[in-house]
Records
---
Amino acid sequence: MQTNMPDIADTAPALQTGKLDWVGMAEIELPFIFESRDLIPVTVNAKARAFVNLHKEDAKGIHMSRLYLALDVLSTEQQVNPQTLANTLNTFISSHENLSDKAQIEFKFELPLRRKSLLSGKVGWKSYPVTLTSTIEHNIISYELTVDVTYSSTCPCSAALARQLIQNAFNEKFNQDTLSQKDVHEWLGTTQGIVATPHSQRSIANVKVKLNRDINEFDVVNLINTLENELKTPVQAAVKREDEQEFARLNGQNLMFCEDAARKIKASLEASNHADYWLQINHYESLHAHDAVAIAVKGIENGYKA
């Protein structure tokens, strides 16, 4: 094999000088083993982004293969956790001596979790979109975790309007002074009794948290559980009739505008110890052709912006 092959990134002059914030690769196909608290290490298929900055103004470019090979070691020889990500970021920097002093890795993947039904005890798979970003700058490493949680939202306004129609139908059906409990009970179980139902829709909470720098493990399962417990109506996997009935009850007891869902999640994140957070609530309306959206941030100096 020829050994003295040209390396244009080292020898060719830049067409124009200047510093670049990030240079690297995106959409890298990368399976890896993900580690998180309360989770058996699981293999996921990710799309990765790998970057370093280019602070040497006259350098032609970076050595992209070195980024890829470092990621390949992470993929095939290690498990992804805060320590291995920190080591890989340091490898990015050390392999670009005099060229770079910042590095970043981003993984986007679907995390499969076994989720139990509401009442029947059945268990099924649910996949949660996750983005894991790690950055090193001025020798300080930071981690950012983004998860999407899908749930059902039932409109409070629609529920009130439906109740009014049911009241009107009741008055039309039972206009006598005395009522039989049996007759009312039977009527409530018919389509003539429940003449209207509120509209609900599949909704998604996008939540991004900045993790504390001194963490030694990720805790994505707890974050997902916290969000689902706060929202009360996460979409289900395995469902029997008793689960569907319980889901209907939970929707009826947790009517939500997008503002309600955003405030619920904001309150739960405020109670956590995350360094920062950003959230966006998306209600994919069944009444309208547009979406209802609410956004909130922690509001710290130099933090996430709405």
Note: The helical segments are 8-11, 64-77, 82-94, 156-173, 181-188, 220-231, 241-253, 258-270.
---
Amino acid sequence: MNITFRQLRLFLALAETGSVSAAARVMHVTQPTASMQLREVSQAVGLPLYEVISRRVHLTEAGHALARTARAIAGEWDAFEQRVSGAKGLTSGRLKVAVVSTAKYFVPRLLGSFCKLHPQIDISLEVLNRDHVINRLRSNLDDLYVMSMPPADLPLEDHILMPNPLVVIAAAGHPLAAKKRVKFTQLQAERFILREKGSGTRMATDARLRQLGFVPSAVLELGSNEAIKESVEGQLGVSIVSRHSLGPHHEGLAVLNVQGFPIQSQWHLVWPKGKQLSPIAEVFRGHLMGEVKGWMEGR
């Protein structure tokens, strides 16, 4: 079987983008060249590797197997290049990080301080909902992952990064905003504006509501923290969100002092168990833990 490393990279780009034209852009070749190279890969394997349905590429079983192999080879090669660069005293390379959407309120700052120390390193940051981050984790597409509720069915290296308190918020002018203590039963008549099912915040919220034996009278589900905050500020209801999503200033919103809150959740830094982190990922992991420790001690 005669397949070049560059052809493997091209097929991996096809698997990750789902499009021949997008794979061609990733590899900086023309679409006809990419199509020809992919045909040669299929011919070398001797089995169909993908099919195109409604302009979208769908991998066959053999295609998925080849993508896993190509990803493993590419990962080993990238790690080798980084080790060689390190031996030469260089700091070039690439770091890939995937985080759940709520982590976007603090991870970019950590990446920014890392980039100042290592300006030659290319950074790829994927900000997605929890399901998509877990899919990337299962496929080992990135170096490191940040989420609040790691999946229990995957063997992971799991390091607690920092607290992620979940608080009850209402519009700043809400009658309960001025109260020193609010019983959760006082929220019975409120509409609860919550993240979509499957998100880490929603999972922690549902668990606490079950614990309290509380069933909201009405629920509005939204897919982003920004939409939730706008809705709460517009007096559509109350919500339970990560304290990190509010930032230092949240005019128009009030954190209610509700009995049993905040929910004490945690941010986790994870990667597949058994995975050997690249030198750059190891350096970033140390930077991340050090920076967060400094934040916590400075409070």
Note: The mean pLDDT is 88.
